[in-house]
Amino acid sequence: MQRRKFLGLSSFAATASLLPGLFSEVWAQVALRSSTHSAQSSGVRIPRWQPHDFSFPSRAVPNNPFTVPLAAVATGPNGQRFTVPGFYDGLGGWTVRFAPNTIGNWSLVTQSTLPDLNQQQASFLCVPSEREGAHGGLRIDTQHPSQFVYEDGTRYFPMGYECDWLWALDSSDPQLKTVNLFLDKLSGYGFNFIILNTYAHDTSWRKGRTGDDDFGPPPLYAWEGTNEQPDHSRFNLAYWQHYDRVIEALFRRGIVAHILLRVYNKQVNWPVNGSAEDDLYYRWVIARYAAYPNVTWDLAKEAHYEKDLDYKTGRLRYFRANDPYHRLLTVHDDRANYDRGVYSNLVDYRSDQQHTDWRKTMLAHLQQHLWPVINTEFGYECGPNGLSDKTYNVAQLPEEVCRRAWEVYMAGGFGAYYYTYTAWDIIRPNDRPPGYEYFKNLYDFFTSTGYWKMKPLEGVASDGYCLADAGREYVVFLNSAAPFTLTLGELPAPLTGEWYQPFRGAWLAAGKIGNGRLDLTPPAEWGGGPVVLHLKRTSA
User: Fold this and answer.
1) Edge to edge, what strands does the sheet with 93-98 contain?
2) Which band of pLDDT confidence, cut at 50, 70 and 90, is reported for residue 43?
3) Where are the beta strands (DSSP E) in 345-386?
4) Model's pTM, two decimal places?
């Protein structure tokens, strides 16, 4: 099957099957978002890296407006050119959503087989963004390839949160009162990327609607029809309008949306692989969400369920060819193909799930290929009543989930947090489990260090794990606060030491530590739980 491209490298004829979508609603409460403008508007000012919707009405009444091809060539300073897909907006209108990446004057010209959508023009000025946290899209740090940076060079320390059904909340409330409060809470605890599905139907372990907090099956369906009898050639505009609002809410807070494009174990009736409807779906997602700089793509949750490797690699190549912004791309949990190197030149980073040998596995992944690695699933915090309080058949205490996270981060990787009452189709957004505070401590600790320059270092501590920028900064994590030996050499000057208790977030001075072998004992008043020793240079 021919794969048609959105990029300027291909002719417009190659975009004849571009997927359209919708975005007819502008929300008055979204002050940080530019309003929608018609093709005839002029003098539009769009902040850098901010999605903006250009509206193009048509008098035509096609049989299926979702299959009408529409693209726009956006030309900016220094000859930059983006070929951006458009999408059907409902009520006889189409939209092109675009986010300029360079300050200066831009023009936009549409291309379509529908005459009154063709050769429509708009011009606009990209201005500096005044939004706090506007840094552009995520990139891989070329100087430190296992790390992320934003487009403007700002560092990004990922701390994830899985909420697969986030979009199921507030489906009848355009104000997103529950979603906004929930995201504000998560952001306050340092969670800065959320893993969510484009659509998920139900879980096999909690089938059907078992209560008001059970969103499987969800209130809205992504296509016309039903999951049992879907019409994959037409999209449910109400569903995707609501999904837009959720992605917008994440964008306003600077939270990355780690979008799982498919999920194989949540009872979804997906379009047939390689069909016209399959292409339509992926074009739709690109058209609607590629403009958001806070988006990263994940081919599928637990992608190993898909046995057709050609299909998976073909879809990855499709995104590489058709996403004009080149948002980061990954595949979740397809270990055999990762280990064989199948994805080494197709994706930007590795995402996996590993429930044992957290540090050992992370070290192996990073040794195999030097890129960012995220263990997105290593534990599930139980509910407030203990280990028997769970929605899935596995749960751990909050201290154990956090301890595993430290092992992942101490190996140079990144992680994502699960709470049994928000990870899947049971969602209790008002809960405040202990793990939130524990992960906030982890985030605050690492972002106070030069973590991006550190690498795992063996032979330094007689117990625990060491992460270091050798000679300048060291972090030693002990699973149990017991006496140990530290051996350092070639330090240009003694380092200042501090003890850190990762559950309490408490600090105690550890004095100056220089070259040689030193016997150390963690603070007795913290008991026998995990403890961290942080050594760093301090200015005179």
Assistant:
1) 37-38, 52-57, 93-98, 81-90, 70-75, 104-112, 121-127, 44-47
2) confident
3) 350-353, 373-377
4) 0.92
